[in-house]
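Tokens in:
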């Protein structure tokens, strides 16, 4: 039995809904045959966007989409994706998959997608091949008031008189790598150069996001923020990327050993350390009002080929309970750092990396990760509260090295008179029994609705023939008794409190 204390008076900050955000890059099958089927398709759609996906994104209250990349953005000219005659060009990814970009989905379509779902927009703009003036023009095109500028008139001619709502704007992507192979000092200078003319044309509530480090490369962030100290703090968020990716250490999407299950989840847990250390650098540079953390790419990245397209869609992969548990523990980490994180975007939404949907033609399924986002949705906009639980260390061996990982990940939040507790049990053999004590509530309802996501086979997946193989179960529990968290599972508990 594990004692779990939820401490309501210990308020850790409001969980920004955008922490539950998504990434929709022009890569592989994310856009074409993913979210986009085309207006004339027989597949049910809203203005060309796959109806089933839009409806299911509404159901989980998807808060924000990052677009158009990723690396794709670093060779993207926004002018190719507006108006009647769209250019066909090699994209960033053509070298990898031989596919050419038709630009059928461009700026107008992206904002329509956000509108259909009811989500915010996050444009990742290109500083590798676009000038500061190009970027300013793009912002002008998107946001200038109706009829006020030449570019606003062009937008009107293209069918959208009113400005688009731009909520977040990224200045570059992975500029330490594909985004120009820059040094942090060079990027810092460019950030200031691009943000200055952009800032004074951007709507006042549009948040500008910079490019921080990859994984554990803290030196990038330290040196980049060092540059930002001297002038120009026209920045609201600073992103970093962390993928858990190593075929050698973690095996494949469906084919992995028990040790590889633990090794992958142990490395996913390093997200906690990355947030702590990155925030330490932000504080050390007095940038806490400018450098709120944005984790705009995260997820479990398996070797190619396990998805329905059998490798035709770049980076398409299947998802098991391992991916669901990894998503759950990552979201628990984000919840518990609510005061530091402004947004996060799981990579990516459809047919790519740690996706929520797999599609092919008229077929569409939700992955176990979709269910985690559904089970966690009440955390969005809630007050994160302190929670402590007794845990055990699970020992494992991987590539000749010993490791250990905690058996339980958890977080808790309060909103509208409900306490939401979410937990993931990493142990593939033993269930955990939680003896719950809520500190600081006047009254607590004994009965609580609980969703449990698990499967007797940790390698089970949803397929087009069997799309509900891994799905959550809804049960009512008596919280005066221990709450069971089955082996290798994710649970969410909703408790009425006052
Ligand atoms: O998500 C796939 C790619 O991974 C993105 O384009 C890039 O930013 C990252 O390296």
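Residues out:
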């Amino acid at each position: 039995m594990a004692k779990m204390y939820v401490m309501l008076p210990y308020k850790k900050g409001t969980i920004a809904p955008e922490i539950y955000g998504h990434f929709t890059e022009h890569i592989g099958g994310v856009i074409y045959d993913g979210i986009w089927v085309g207006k004339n398709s027989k597949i049910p759609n809203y203005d060309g966007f796959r109806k089933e996906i839009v409806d299911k994104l509404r159901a989980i209250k998807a808060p924000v989409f990052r677009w158009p990349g990723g690396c794709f953005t670093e060779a993207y000219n926004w002018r190719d994706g507006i108006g009647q005659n769209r250019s066909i060009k090699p994209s960033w990814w053509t070298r990898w998959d031989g596919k050419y970009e038709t630009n059928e989905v461009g700026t107008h379509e992206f904002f329509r997608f956000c509108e259909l779902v009811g989500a915010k927009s996050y444009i990742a703009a290109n500083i590798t091949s676009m000038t500061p003036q190009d970027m300013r023009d793009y912002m002008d095109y998107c946001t200038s008031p109706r009829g006020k500028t030449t570019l606003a008139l062009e937008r009107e001619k293209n069918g959208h008189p009113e400005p688009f709502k731009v909520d977040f704007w990224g200045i570059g992507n992975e500029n330490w790598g594909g985004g120009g192979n820059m040094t942090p000092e060079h990027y810092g200078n460019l950030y200031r150069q691009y943000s200055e003319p952009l800032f004074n044309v951007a709507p006042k509530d549009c948040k500008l996001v910079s490019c921080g480090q990859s994984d554990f490369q803290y030196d990038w962030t330290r040196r980049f923020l060092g540059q930002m100290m001297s002038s120009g703090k026209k920045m609201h968020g600073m992103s970093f990327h962390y993928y858990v990716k190593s075929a050698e250490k973690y095996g494949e999407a469906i084919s992995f050993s028990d040790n590889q299950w633990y090794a992958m989840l142990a490395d996913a847990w390093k997200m906690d350390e990355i947030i702590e250390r990155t925030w330490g650098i932000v504080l050390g540079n007095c940038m806490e009002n400018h450098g709120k953390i944005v984790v705009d790419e995260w997820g479990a990245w398996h070797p190619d080929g396990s998805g329905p397209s059998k490798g035709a869609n770049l980076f398409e992969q299947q998802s098991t309970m391992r991916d669901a548990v990894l998503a759950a523990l990552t979201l628990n980490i984000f919840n518990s750092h609510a005061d530091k994180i402004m947004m996060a975007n799981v990579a990516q939404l459809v047919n790519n990396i740690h996706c929520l949907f797999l599609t092919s033609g008229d077929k569409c399924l939700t992955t176990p990760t979709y269910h985690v986002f559904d089970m966690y949705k009440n955390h969005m906009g809630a007050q994160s509260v302190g929670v402590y639980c007794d845990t055990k260390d699970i020992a494992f061996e991987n590539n000749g090295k010993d490791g250990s990982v905690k058996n339980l990940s958890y977080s808790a939040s309060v909103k509208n008179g409900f306490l939401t507790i979410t937990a993931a049990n990493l142990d593939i053999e033993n269930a955990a029994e939680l003896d719950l004590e809520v500190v600081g509530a006047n009254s607590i309802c004994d009965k609580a609705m609980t969703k449990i996501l698990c499967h007797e086979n940790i390698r089970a997946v949803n397929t087009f023939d069997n799309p509900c193989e891994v799905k959550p179960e809804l049960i009512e529990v008596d919280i005066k008794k221990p709450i069971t968290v089955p082996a290798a599972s994710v649970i969410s508990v909703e408790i009425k409190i006052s």
